[in-house]
Design a protein that fits this description.
two-stranded antiparallel ribbon, globular, 5-stranded mixed β-sheet, 7 strands, 252 residues, alpha+beta, 8 helices
Length: 252
């Protein structure tokens, strides 16, 4: 019997090495996302590094941090269900300029003269609940003003930290045998501390009710009014149209 060389022997097609669904995994998102089942995720919610000098991100430059976020977002393309959501919790002030936003910034340990974080000050206070600010300062080796700023979340003189949540929605057009990605909506949801500006009362808000159908047993839903949000801060609502494939310019 003739034996075929190994490189000429027909090989059986191998199944993709997908991760089993409905399980918890710990690892590098850039690796794990490539092993997710296509169109299997309805909502992806994650909090990436903020590029503010934390120990676990000290090797990142700003361009490499941007590249990391772009890579992880792109890897969601295959696994997000049609109409699914990608939500990113990120430091607001570091991403966009907005003259109407209070002058605040994230807790950047790398720029502090005293390397004491708010978490460390809170841990000391919990361990020694009867200590005064002066005693906690002696314990931590810093000034009582530093203890006061860390405990009261007053990390810069102009104000407090603010975070925003970024929602990314992939918009598809259904076809006979496939779904085509035609656009991406990006919404930078304002922090609740900015309510006086964005949602002063129920009659002046970017939140909307609908479109739910109680007759079909659907629960009440809340939606974001994009035109209303853009009127308050244009950059917070971005629409990237992929069909036709035109160059996109960010609204600022």
């Amino acid at each position: 019997m003739m034996v075929m060389p190994a490189h000429l022997t027909p090989q059986k097609a191998t199944e993709p090495n997908y991760l089993p669904e409905n399980a918890i995994y710990c690892g590098d998102a850039c690796e794990l996302l490539q092993r997710g089942h296509p169109a299997s995720v309805a909502l992806s919610f994650w909090s990436p590094p903020y590029c503010v000098g934390k120990t676990y991100e000290k090797e990142l430059t700003f361009p490499s941090w941007q590249g990391l976020l772009k890579e992880v977002i792109a890897l969601h393309y295959e696994i997000i269900k049609p109409g699914g959501f990608l939500a990113i919790n990120i430091a607001d002030i570091l991403s966009f300029s907005d003259p109407d936003t209070p002058r605040v910034q994230a807790d950047n340990v790398g720029t502090k003269k005293v390397k004491i974080t708010g978490e460390e000050a809170l841990a000391a206070q919990r361990a020694y609940p009867g200590y005064t600010r002066y005693q906690l300062a002696d314990l931590l080796g810093c000034s009582e003003q530093t203890v006061d700023r860390r405990l009261n979340n007053n990390k810069v003189r102009e104000g407090n930290d603010f975070l925003t949540t970024i929602f990314v929605k992939y918009n598809y057009r259904s076809g006979a045998d496939r779904n085509d990605l035609i656009g991406i909506s990006i919404i930078c949801l304002p922090n609740g501390m900015l309510q006086e500006r964005y949602n002063p009362d129920q009659d002046d808000s970017f939140w909307r009710a609908g479109r739910n159908a109680p007759s079909l047993g659907e629960v009440f839903r809340v939606r974001i009014g994009l035109p209303s949000l853009k009127r308050r801060a244009n950059w917070r609502a971005q629409q990237i149209q992929l069909v036709p494939d035109l160059a996109h310019r960010w609204d600022d």
